[in-house]
Design a protein that fits this description.
eight-stranded antiparallel β-sheet; alpha+beta; 8 strands; Lipocalin; 19% helix; 2 helices; 121 residues
Length: 121
């Protein structure tokens, strides 16, 4: 009986520790919206399309553009010179206000804007 008591406590502590580990962020929800990067806006829509805008008043170009998240990867498809192209970014950080993506040795930083890309959030 004494042996059972000593093994039950570590098992209970381990169980509690595992239950308090934070779930990974839902990047597919965090990515949605309008983001300002280096001189242009990127807009990620809930339907899996994404677009670019050169400024807040410019029309959004979504033709042939799709996005999805797989773990910590943001996968973008877009029209290229010879059909559709795909880029796979690693999501370094994504919060309600900031998104940092990397591809190869290149890092891009974005700041969230309002849903209509008219004002900073």
């Amino acid at each position: 009986m004494r042996c059972l008591r000593f093994t039950a406590v570590p098992v209970a502590l381990l169980s509690f520790a595992l239950s308090t580990v934070a779930a990974p962020p839902d990047y597919s929800k965090l990515v949605r919206g309008c983001w300002l990067g280096a001189g242009k806006f990127r807009v990620y829509h809930a339907d899996g399309t994404w677009g670019v805008k050169r400024n807040e008043d410019a029309p959004e170009d979504t033709k042939g553009r799709r996005w999805r998240v797989d773990g910590n990867k943001l996968i973008l498809t877009y029209p290229g010179d010879h059909g559709s192209e795909t880029a796979v970014y690693t999501i370094v950080r994504c919060t309600e206000r900031q998104m940092v993506l990397s591809i190869g040795r290149y890092t891009e930083e974005y700041t969230r804007y309002s849903a209509d890309c008219q004002t900073e959030a």
